[in-house]
Amino acid sequence: MVQVKRPITKPQAITLKAVAQHLGLTPGTVSAVLNDSPSARSIPQETKNRIRAAAQELNYRPNFFARTLRNKRTYTIGVITEEIGDSYSSPIISGLEQYLRKRDYFFLTVVHRHDQALLSRYSQMLSERGVEGIITVDTTVLEAPMLPTVCVAGHKRLKGITNIVLDHERAAGLALNHLKELRHERIAFMKGNPISSDAKDRWDAICRVAAQIGVTIDPELTVQIDADDPTPKLGYPFAHQLLARQKPFTALFAYNDISAMGAIRAIQEKGLRVPEDISVMGFDDIPGAAYHTPSLTTVRQPLNRMGEVAAQTLLERIEGKKEYPPDIAIEPELVVRESTAQAASSC
After folding, report:
1. Residue 15 gets which letter from DSSP?
2. What is the arithmetic mean of pLDDT over 60-65?
3. Rounded to an integer, what distance in angstroms lies between the CA atom of residue 289 and that of residue 337?
4. What CATH architecture does domain 168-301+334-346 belong to?
5. How many beta carbons lie within 10 A of that of residue 72, not counting itself?
6. Is residue 256 predicted with pLDDT exceeding 80?
7. Backbone dihedral region of 183: left (phi > 0), alpha (psi from -120 to 50 degrees) or beta?
8. Based on the number of CB atoms within 10 Å of its own CB, is 85 exposed (0-12), middle (13-18) or buried (19 or more)?
9. Which CATH fold would you assign to the domain 76-167+303-331?
10. Spatial CA neighbour of 307 closest among 136, 63, 108, 87
11. How confident is the model at residue 114 (pLDDT cuts 50, 70, 90)?
């Protein structure tokens, strides 16, 4: 007997109308709740909960294209960043992705590597592709944008922009007071590359706080990073420069964690110990900071959270839920680990 193979049929997609019939509600009510439209505000919370639970139970998936045509929106934002896989940008992008995914938004990411010509072109390209707003990461925006824009580490005050900024004054105070409490008087400093959005603000804050608390900044113990490298190699040659000047110091405040890691390698190659001979302080608290040897004392920027705040702020602006603030300050936190200790001369 010959078996006749039956054609495989795909399960039919559950429609919004089917969800409404299942609940005994009108399609308009279900649509308002699932699309989070303004008319949903008048719907009781108990009904909203029933609708969302039923949509999940029935495995309802909204038709993106129908939604786009109906609302004349793309539910897409653009992300402009200096680098996509480095230890600073990656957690920020991860944070904004987590927030956007829960709200059914897409995002397009472009990388400019501090090329101003590319930066201008990307803004136009993203606009032409229908993005509803833009988030920039470690990018200095020089002119007012056409679309709602949120900058993570941008710092320029321009109409239409909200800056997500770290409280650098507070961050500098946490780091320098920590080193001062450990009796460090001869502190070396690595200044960030000027192309980095945070470099000037961070250094200005360090200078102000140092003057306030009586920490001396010696030009001979200060080095300017002029390289752009996402690896520990960033700090390695500049720590060698400081050591080659043969002016003793007991602590080094690096521009960021990556440069601090490179500096530790350079210090160890000179036969010195961290922290017994030289304490090293980082900045950012990137994921690898806790697992470096020695583990890195640092000033934590909540990078993942900064990405979430940026995404939330942009969506609230796009959806007209609130007026945009020019700045949102994020508080830093001191994380003490193994790379700092009492100054050798004070032990």
Report:
1. P
2. 65
3. 9
4. 3-Layer(aba) Sandwich (3.40)
5. 6
6. yes
7. left
8. exposed
9. Rossmann fold (3.40.50)
10. 136
11. confident
The answer to whether residue 343 scores a pLDDT higher than 80 is yes
Q: Residue 324: how many CA atoms within 13 Å on its side-chain side?
A: 28
Mean pLDDT of all residues in the chain? Answer: 88
Note the pLDDT tens digit of each residue in 138-184: 888 777 778 899 999 876 778 888 999 899 999 999 999 999 999 99
DSSP letters for 159-206: TTEEEEEE-HHHHHHHHHHHHHHTT--SEEEEEPPTTSTTHHHHHHHH
Domain boundaries, the chain: 11-48, 76-167+303-331, 168-301+334-346
For residues 132 and 77, is the Cβ–Cβ distance under 8 A? yes
Helix axes 257-269, 236-244, angle to 10 degrees: 50
| Tokens found for residue 279 | 């304490």
Task: Judge whether 76-167+303-331 and 168-301+334-346 match in fold.
Answer: yes
Which is nearest to 76 in space by CA: 111, 98, 107, 36? Answer: 107
Confirm whether pTM is higher than 0.85: no
Asked if 150 contacts 313 with a C-beta cutoff of 8 angstroms, the reply is: yes
In this predicted model, what pLDDT tens digit does every residue of 34-59 receive, in sequence order? 877 667 778 899 999 998 898 888 88
